[in-house]
Fold this protein.
Amino acid sequence: MNVIQTQGVGWIEVVCGCMFSGKTEELIRRIRRAQIAKQNVVIFKPEIDNRYSDNEVVSHSKQKLESVTVSSAQEVLELSQDAEVVGIDEVQFLGAEVVDVCNQLAKDGKRVIVAGLDKDYLGVPFEPIPQLLAVSEYIVKTLAICMECGNPANFTQRLIDSEERVLVGTDKIYEARCRKCFKP
């Protein structure tokens, strides 16, 4: 992706896909490049995501970056005043308010990079990702590898019996699946 850098103009970048598709790795890659460019960067994660660390964004492949844990989208806005680049992992856990927060940050001239699940375990669009896609300037959809057949995977298969929409977990609870192998 080529991003044209201009002074004083912000934008929103969305990295979305199913679990195990490399969303957090891509977010970390983009944030690290901004750090190399000596930009003032802050990265956030919702407090609900404590799978690997309380104060780091961590990919399933164990790449990590120090982060700020927040309980609401409003905290992101409040804690981003000095940042040029704002990253948010697992953005789907911050609710609908995060769309307005991202828009405000971009209006304030910040580069906003968010990563999150675009569908839940039933294959239903996972808000607020559809709304973020609509207002973003740049979109990347990542695919995983189906754990059943090896084809490109676009769905997150829940392996345990639970009807909770939000159930934070790793490979013991979820697998990536292709359209053919996915069973909601």
Notes: The mean pLDDT is 91. Helices lie at 23-36, 73-78, 97-107, 129-135. Residues 23-36 form the longest helix (14 residues).
